[in-house]
Structure formats: C-alpha cells, structure tokens
Amino acid sequence: MNFKSDFFRVDRFNSYNVNHLEALKKITNDKGINKYFTNLDFAFYEVTQNYRLQGNYLVYLKNVNIGFIRLIEGDNYLELQYGILEEFRNKKLSILLLNSIIAQLSKYNVDKLVLYIKDDNIPSIKTANKIGFEVEKENIDEKIYTKKLR
What we know:
The protein has helices spanning 18-28, 31-36, 40-43, 93-105, 122-130; strands at residues 3-4, 8-12, 55-61, 64-73, 77-84, 112-118, 134-138, 142-148. It is of the alpha+beta class. A hairpin with a 3-residue loop joins strand 7 (134-138) and strand 8.
C-alpha cells in the first residue's frame, strides 16, 4: 500500500533503495523514536510479502522523510505503529498522518485500527484522543487504543 494524500507520500520500505536506507538510519538514530521502539532497524527487515497491508512504510512531506508507519495485520484489524522525526514533532503532523491513513484504509476490509501507547507518551495519547480513538484495555505501562473504521 503506497499512497499519496494532500500532505503525505507513504512508500513501503524497500531495503534495496539507498534513499530508504538513509531514511531508516535517521529514524533509528532519533532519540524520541528510540524511547518507544526497540530493534526498529531489525523490524524494518522483517519479511512481509504474504500480507496485503502489513509492512513498514516511510512517510514523506514534500519529498522529505518525516518518519515511518508500521502496520501489523490481525483478524479484521490493523495495529499501527508510527514515529515522527524530532524536527517535525509538535506541528500536528501526526494528526494529519493518522487521518490520511484512516482515509486510505477505508478502501480495505479493516474493521478497526489499534494503537499501543505507553502511558508516558503524552503527545501520542493526545493525538489518539483528538482523532477518536478510545481506550479498549489498560496494561501495566501502556493502554490499547482502538478506532472502528466501519
């Protein structure tokens, strides 16, 4: 699922693409992203060919990489993980990005979108709440947020 919206271009990660590798290096060196994601560079190389949506994607704004999304398929739901590079945070881009993704997913047979958010990740909690995600379950140090898509 590669797509373009009014704001973003989202490309499935390609380990043979030099530009994608450079973007991945920047993402994995971002301290804010590393706070919430471990082994992200390894996760980008997972084989995902057998899934229609599952995979790792790079997000571009005006041809500049601003972060990533990762989709993990379940039974009629998608878990979404995302990270915005430090220089692009606090600009409401995560709200625009998630709304763009939700609009794209309406073309697929996905019942709900799931976010696992650590309790100390206040910006992601605010973003999830602003776009209509609700807490479905509470774990020790994180909450599971869901949004019905259909």
